[in-house]
Amino acid sequence: MAKKILLVDDEPHIIMMLENRMKHAGYEVITASDGQEALTKAKKENPDLIILDLMLPKLDGYKVCRMLKFDEKYKHIPIIMLSARAQEADKKMGETVGADGYVTKPFEPQVLLGKVKELLSA
Amino acid sequence: MTVKISKDQNLLTFIERNHEAIVVVDRSGLVLFANPAAARLFNQERKGLCGKVFGFPLPGDKVVEINIPGKSKEVGMAQMQQMPIEWQGKRAFVLLIHDISELKKTEMLKAAMDERRRIDRIKNEFISNVSHELRTPLTSVREGISQILEGFLGKTTAGQKEFLSMCLEDIDRLSRIIDGLLDISRIESGKIILKKETLDIVDLARSAASSLSVKIKNKGLELIEDYPKEKTEIYVDRDRIIEVFINLLGNAIKFTDKGHIGIFVKNKAKMVECCVEDTGRGIAKKDLSRVFVRFQQFGRVFGPGEKGTGLGLSIVKSIIELHKGQIRVESKLNKGSKFIFTLFKYTSRELFRQYVADGLREAVHNDEPLSIFLFYIDDFARVIKEFGNERIAFLMNKFYEIVGGHLRRQADLAVKDDRAILLVLPVTKNEYINSIQMRLSQALEEYLTKEGLDKKIKIGFKTAGFPRDGASADELFNKIKEAIS
Question: pTM to 2 decimals?
Answer without folding.
Answer: 0.56
